[in-house]
């Protein structure tokens, strides 16, 4: 209530004001819609709300301080029965400014339903809300309405439409609005430049810039910053030299551009010329030196600063944390004249990054203040060194968790192989009413994909849609991946088809999803479609394409693509690509060609390559190559049982039992034992985990009983256990 009173100091002298003041106090205590209605009803009855300033006050109050959703606010407006758009606008703007764009849009819709006509203030507010919520569909509808109204020529409204389209990544539509403008002001020109820059189309931004009848400092700065962020630093410099006037922002963009390109020499030259340096200028240089691993120069520069404050101290400390060992970082930390939480967290992070969790823990206990970031660093550090247990204990006792904490714990479980725990934690999070973000969903979807839990996967998909997450970004990638890995390629394709702005990750996920299930032809034609789009294939794309060819036996095509990747796209084949080629040729029986690929590799073949060759030579019954590949593998990963098993399998198959038992002997001598078979089965949405020889499942007795009953039935049905497998077990 304090701020209300401050707003209106004359209130005590005004009896009407006092009564409104006490109503506002009552309103502030309302927690439900019903209570709100109860307070408002008498206000309306006594006619308090007839007074315009009073109405304005109540609505403003509700919108900004108390009313949490537009449901309340709109019910308030319904009470007021005000056909004038003024109050609606006030509310819509309040929602927009308090970062509740969804509510602003919803209120706008209610406004239309209440037959209130939006005016030239309504549209800019709600279009801005659409922009910050990336609500393209609604934005388009609103723009349609604008286009049919006389407001179509209002500069402010047109500018807002451009801004909305630019923020939603629709520069073509923004341009259409811009092109239709009868009069354009500097703001609309700048907005177009800004839009193109933010959407990564520097060429188009330049065209607008060149066509401008007049430019202000802001236009120049937008262009310079865009070029420098796009690594076109020479071009940026060209413009910079032509500029009529420059401010510190211009200089900072240029210096930052050179620093980001790693050209610290020119950055320093410019830096020396800056007439008025601010904290950011110094910070850019210190960061630049630190990022190019020249911490000595960073420190020298730091010493030269006329005044040092916490910002620059923290900058230098961050540089030390990046370039130096923990001892030197700690020394700098100790020498700091002042520190705040950020400094402590930087130090803590330095320990955690180097896996020095004991030192981190000690520092943590010394901290005068801790925030959620400090806890998160500690949790992440423990997860990274594999100490999930401790991470979990910290997670359980931390006083407050943000979504990052949940994400760290989820990925900690996932990275340490505790997949089921990760999925459980996600659902626990949901039960507690915590809001996940797109990273949470991406992590849990990829865990679900690894486990093949389609029921949970569908649930997360529905949840993401319900909660209005955009499926166009990372979540789309994860969904495609999840449906593919769970075996529902058609659903993955469905997601893929509905994505409006496909990026390279979407294409890659879909191509490898198709490849994984042997839809080689579809994967290849999808790739052909991709080459016709604006997205350029990368090395991961080709892994997908080559493995698609391999699974579908498209030997010639695979060979062509392998050549195409370096010749047309300039992608140097990595070891994975060679692995795919070995697999491709090997599977198709061209074992000699596969060996030639292995011999021609510019890098040493890794275990994956040998395993591909081993698998192929074994299934084509080529003992010589099998032996060769297996021996390489045994040297490379002597503790992995699979190569021993494959080789001995081969000997058994060829009837060379002596050699087979020799292999087993070497294996025993090396202390290698067969990895326990592990399997997960999902049943009615519950995950059951089994490993060979495991008796921990609560329903073990029943399961074995059923298995026993099944064996005679299987034999009756003509199932014969694999001979090779049985022989192997006997040898064991
Ligand atoms: C610490 O100080 C820096 C520089 O003034 C500031 O940017 C940062 O937000 C501060 N950190 C905290 C947690 O207050």
Shape: globular
SS strand fraction: under 5%
Residue stretches low in confidence (pLDDT < 50, at least 5 long) are 1-13, 720-732
Overall mean pLDDT score? 84
Gyration radius, to the nearest Å? 33 Å
Class from secondary-structure proportions: mainly alpha
* Tally of individual helices: 43
Estimate the helix proportion, in percent: over 70%
Q: Sketch the major β-sheet.
A: 2 strands, antiparallel
Bound ligands, each once: 2-acetamido-2-deoxy-beta-D-glucopyranose
Topology readout:
Blueprint: H1 2-7, H2 15-29, H3 33-45, H4 52-66, H5 70-80, H6 85-97, H7 101-113, H8 122-133, H9 136-148, H10 155-167, H11 171-180, H12 186-198, H13 202-211, H14 217-229, H15 233-242, H16 248-260, H17 264-273, H18 279-291, H19 295-304, H20 310-323, H21 326-335, H22 341-353, H23 357-366, H24 372-384, H25 388-397, H26 403-415, H27 419-431, H28 438-451, H29 454-466, H30 474-485, H31 489-498, H32 504-516, H33 520-532, H34 539-552, H35 555-567, H36 575-587, H37 591-600, H38 607-619, H39 623-636, H40 641-653, H41 657-669, E1 678-683, E2 686-691, H42 700-716, H43 723-731
Antiparallel strand pairs: 1-2
The structure holds 2-acetamido-2-deoxy-beta-D-glucopyranose (NAG).
2-acetamido-2-deoxy-beta-D-glucopyranose binds at residues 310-311, 314, 340-342.
Describe the model.
With 732 residues, this protein is mainly alpha-helical. Helix content is 72%, strand content 2%. It has 43 helices and 2 strands. Strands 1-2 form a two-stranded antiparallel ribbon. Strand 1 (678-683) and strand 2 (686-691) form a beta hairpin. Helix 24 (372-384) packs antiparallel against helix 25, helix 30 (474-485) runs parallel beside helix 32 (504-516) and helix 35 (555-567) packs antiparallel against helix 36. It is globular. Residues 1-13 and 720-732 have low confidence and may be disordered. The structure holds 2-acetamido-2-deoxy-beta-D-glucopyranose.
């Amino acid at each position: 209530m304090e701020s209300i009173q401050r707003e209106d100091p004359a209130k005590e002298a005004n009896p009407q004001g006092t009564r409104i003041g006490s109503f506002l106090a009552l309103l502030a205590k309302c927690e439900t819609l019903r209570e709100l209605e109860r307070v408002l009803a008498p206000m309306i009855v006594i006619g308090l709300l007839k007074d315009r300033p009073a109405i304005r006050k109540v609505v403003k109050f509700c919108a900004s301080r108390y009313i949490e959703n537009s449901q309340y606010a709109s019910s308030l407006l319904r009470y007021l029965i005000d056909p004038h758009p003024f109050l609606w606008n006030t509310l819509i703007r309040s929602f927009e400014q308090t970062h509740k764009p969804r509510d602003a849009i919803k209120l706008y819709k209610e406004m239309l339903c209440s037959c209130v006509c939006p005016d030239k203030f309504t549209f800019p507010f709600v279009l801005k809300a659409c922009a910050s919520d990336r609500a393209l569909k609604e934005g388009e509808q609103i723009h349609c309405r604008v286009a049919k109204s006389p407001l179509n020529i209002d500069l402010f409204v047109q500018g807002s439409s451009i801004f909305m389209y630019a923020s939603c990544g629709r520069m073509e539509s923004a341009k259409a609005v811009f092109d239709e403008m009868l009069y354009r002001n500097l703001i609309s020109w700048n907005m177009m430049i800004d839009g193109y820059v933010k959407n990564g189309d520097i060429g188009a931004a330049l065209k607008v810039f060149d066509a401008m009848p007049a430019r202000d400092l802001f236009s120049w700065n937008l262009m310079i910053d865009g070029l420098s962020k796009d690594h076109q630093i020479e071009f940026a410099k060209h413009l910079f030299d032509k500029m009529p006037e420059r401010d510190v922002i211009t200089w900072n963009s240029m210096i930052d551009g050179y620093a980001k390109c790693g050209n610290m020499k020119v950055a320093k030259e410019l830096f020396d010329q800056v007439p008025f340096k601010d904290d950011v200028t110094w910070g850019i240089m210190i960061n630049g030196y630190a990022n190019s691993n020249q911490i000595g120069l960073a420190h020298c520069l730091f010493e030269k600063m006329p005044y040092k404050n916490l910002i620059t101290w923290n900058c230098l400390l961050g540089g030390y944390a990046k370039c130096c060992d923990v001892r030197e970082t700690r020394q700098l930390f100790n020498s700091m004249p002042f520190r705040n939480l950020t400094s402590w967290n930087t130090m803590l992070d330095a320990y955690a990054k180097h896996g020095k969790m004991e030192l981190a823990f000690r520092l943590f206990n010394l901290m005068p203040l801790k925030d959620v970031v400090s806890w998160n660093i500690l949790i992440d550090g423990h997860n990274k060194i594999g100490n999930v247990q401790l991470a979990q204990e910290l997670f359980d006792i931390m006083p407050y968790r943000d979504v990052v904490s949940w994400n760290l714990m989820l990925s900690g479980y996932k990275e340490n192989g505790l997949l089921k725990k990760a999925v459980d934690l996600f659902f626990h999070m949901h039960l507690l009413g915590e809001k996940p973000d797109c990273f949470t969903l991406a992590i849990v979807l990829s865990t679900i994909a690894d486990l093949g839990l389609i029921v949970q996967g569908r649930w997360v998909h529905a949840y993401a849609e319900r909660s209005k997450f955009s499926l166009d970004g990372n979540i789309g990638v994860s969904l495609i991946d999840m449906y593919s890995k769970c075996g529902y390629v058609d659903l993955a394709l469905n997601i893929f088809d509905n994505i409006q702005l496909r990026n390279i990750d979407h294409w890659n996920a879909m191509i490898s999803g198709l490849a994984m299930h042997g839809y080689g032809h579809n994967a290849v034609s999808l790739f052909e479609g991709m080459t016709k789009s604006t997205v350029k294939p990368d090395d991961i794309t080709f892994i997908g394409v080559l493995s698609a060819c391999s699974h579908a036996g498209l030997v010639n095509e695979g060979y062509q693509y392998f050549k195409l990747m370096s010749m047309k796209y300039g992608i140097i084949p990595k070891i994975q690509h060679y692995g795919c080629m070995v697999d491709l040729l090997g599977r198709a029986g061209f074992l000699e060609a596969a060996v030639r690929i292995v011999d021609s590799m510019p890098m040493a073949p890794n275990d994956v390559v040998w395993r591909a060759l081993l698998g192929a030579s074994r299934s084509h019954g080529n003992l010589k190559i099998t032996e060769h590949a297996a021996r390489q593998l045994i040297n490379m990963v002597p503790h992995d049982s699979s190569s021993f098993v494959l080789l001995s399998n081969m000997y058994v198959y060829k009837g060379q039992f002596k050699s087979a038992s020799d292999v087993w002997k070497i294996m025993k001598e090396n202390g290698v034992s067969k990895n326990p078979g592990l399997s997960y089965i999902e049943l009615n949405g519950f995950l059951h985990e089994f490993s060979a020889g495991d008796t921990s499942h609560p329903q073990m007795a029943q399961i074995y009983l059923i298995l026993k009953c099944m064996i005679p039935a299987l034999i009756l049905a003509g199932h014969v256990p694999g001979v090779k497998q049985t022989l192997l077990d006997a040898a064991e």
